[in-house]
């Protein structure tokens, strides 16, 4: 799974947050 920011490097940090009842996943 690649980084959501650069779309190149492998993601090393996986964040999951709940905003207004919706789950959002961010891979950095």
What does this structure look like?
This protein has 28 residues and is mainly beta. The chain has one domain (1-28). The chain has strands spanning 14-19, 22-27. A two-stranded antiparallel sheet has the order 1-2. A hairpin with a 2-residue loop joins strand 1 (14-19) and strand 2.
Please outline the helices and strands.
Layout lengths: L13 E6 L2 E6 L1
Rounded mean pLDDT is 92
Helix % is: under 10%
Sheet of most strands: 2 strands, antiparallel
Instruction: Evaluate the radius of gyration.
Output: 10 Å
Query: Uncertain spans, ≥5 residues at pLDDT below 50?
Result: none
Return the string of H and E elements.
EE
> How would you write the strand order of the largest sheet?
1-2
In percent terms, what proportion of residues is strand?
A: 35-45%
Shape: elongated
Q: What class, by secondary structure content? A: mainly beta
Q: Give the tally of β-strands.
A: 2
Q: Give the distance, in angstroms, between the N- and C-terminal Cα atoms.
A: 10 Å
| Number of domains as seen in the coordinates | 1
Number of helices: 0
From the structure above, extract its key features.
28 residues, mainly beta, two-stranded antiparallel ribbon, elongated, 2 strands
What is this entry, summarized?
0% of the residues lie in helices and 43% in strands. It has 28 residues and is mainly β.
């Amino acid at each position: 799974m690649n980084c959501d920011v650069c779309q190149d490097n492998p993601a090393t940090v996986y964040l999951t947050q709940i905003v207004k009842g919706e789950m959002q996943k961010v891979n950095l």
